[in-house]
Design brief:
The protein has eight helices and three strands; from the N terminus they run H-E-H-H-E-H-E-H-H-H-H. The protein is mainly alpha-helical.
């Protein structure tokens, strides 16, 4: 079930049977010469939308598609939020959903650079609840899509070399599967990009001139992307169900 394609009475009815909602979250940033700028928000959205087709009790909120991408601002098309802005927006999303009665908010993430700020935003929400003395039971969960059960292992088998850490063939493959009309190609030099630290934008552009980090996106295929999506969607349904079933102590 997609929140954006539902009416308020449908969401009110959904809340009678489930208090859990999934929020795909990512970033709009460069992904090398062939990776789509939306890759990091597209991947969790693709997986979550596929999962909800198979589960009537999976509700997927609109995608939070701008994240922490300041180090990619040296590449045209990247859009980034400051940590403080990002955390404030996550807080308001959660407060809005919690105000309707959702007690379990599950963020499916597609960008590693978001992790620390998302967790800090959760800490702010918990502190706010503690100081206000609110009833126990509200919880947030963060899960990177590649950390869903079995996904990392599958990607390792598919791409034993050249996977890297940014503009990876696994994430490129997922978008190729979902958007076959947007598949790009390029001659990579070197074939596998160098790795290095992540700091500010000009330093990143100098270290990684085409935007890749340790990866060879040419290894991606739509077929491999479909395998990843199928495994991730199944694992997401199971993980969200387990999260929703967690009972408040006492």
């Amino acid at each position: 079930m997609l929140l954006a394609k539902s009416t308020w009475p449908e969401i009110e009815a959904f809340l009678q049977r489930s208090k859990t909602v999934v929020v795909p979250i990512g970033s709009n940033e460069q992904h090398g010469p062939t990776g789509l700028l939306g890759t990091d928000w597209m991947c969790p959205e693709i997986i979550a939308h596929e999962a909800q087709k198979a589960s009537a009790d999976l509700l997927v909120a609109p995608t939070f598609n701008i994240g922490m991408a300041q180090h990619h601002l040296g590449f045209p098309g990247t859009i980034s939020l400051k940590p403080s802005t990002f955390m404030a927006a996550i807080g308001d999303w959660c407060r809005s959903l919690a105000g309707h009665g959702f007690t379990k908010i599950y963020f499916l993430n597609g960008h590693g650079g978001n992790v620390h700020s998302i967790e800090a935003a959760f800490s702010e929400l918990y502190a706010e609840a503690s100081f206000a003395g609110r009833p126990r039971g509200f919880a947030c969960r963060l899960k990177n899509w590649w950390d869903l059960s079995g996904v990392n292992a599958l990607a390792s088998r598919q791409f034993p070399t050249g996977h890297g850490s940014h503009a990876t063939p696994s994430e490129i493959a997922v978008t190729q599967w979902a958007y076959p009309d947007a598949i790009k190609s390029a001659d990579y030099a070197p074939k596998i990009a160098p790795s290095g630290p992540i700091r500010e934008a000009l330093d990143f552009r100098a270290r990684h001139p085409d935007g890749r980090m340790g990866s060879d996106p040419a290894l991606a295929t739509p077929e491999k992307g479909g395998e990843l999506v199928a495994m991730a969607a199944k694992a997401l349904i199971e993980d969200v169900a387990a999260f929703g079933a967690e009972a408040a102590p006492g």
